[in-house]
Prior knowledge:
By secondary structure, the chain is an alpha+beta fold. It has seven helices and eleven strands.
Amino acid sequence: YRNAGTAEFLLDGDDFYFLEVNARLQVEHPVTELRFGCDLVAEQLRIAAGERLAEHKPPRGWAIECRLTAEEPEHGFRPATGKVLYLHMPSGPGVRVDSALEQGTVVTTYYDSLIAKVVSYGATREEARCRMIAALEDVSILGVAHGTAFLRDIVASAPFARGDLSTHFIEENSPTWSCSREHENAALIAAALAVGDSKEFAPHSPDSGRNDPERNDARSSPWNRLGSFRLWNSQ
């Protein structure tokens, strides 16, 4: 085997425990790229062309990656579909976003639920953690349910800040999280705009638009009444 790969370990104090090797890049590869200051995809192309790998400095700093998925954590991570009506992604020093999502993108049932990756970098773990909290608070995706608030609550929690992590982390700590969802507030606004337009929101056959996220509930969904609007942060 001659290519880039991913070796996975668990670290417990000073002890490393080997897990597996994947003969490919994985979804977490931006963490490596930020810490080493490299482009792993470019390195793969160099290997394929028979060239030598570029020289890299030792790893530096800390990086954290959060995967934004089209799911509803408060409902057992139920998958979500729909059309992106408004999109704003974070930016700034130490923040990276990998995503093909655009305003108007239709999220369907036919692919993985991952819609974006938000990655933060800092000289220390705490700096990377604080940048991640700020980045997740700056995410706005309306029209499709997503787990951004859930991720923010995890990173902002005291156990995560202490590094008190285990395979039971979610069930032990999730009851204290709010998981607020800004798109629900927008839905309420859209529903208010729809009042008085009974024809557009008349009942329709339950089979109409089935398996088509862009057309499903086309007449009953309040999202179709959003129109033009702007989001802002009062702070």
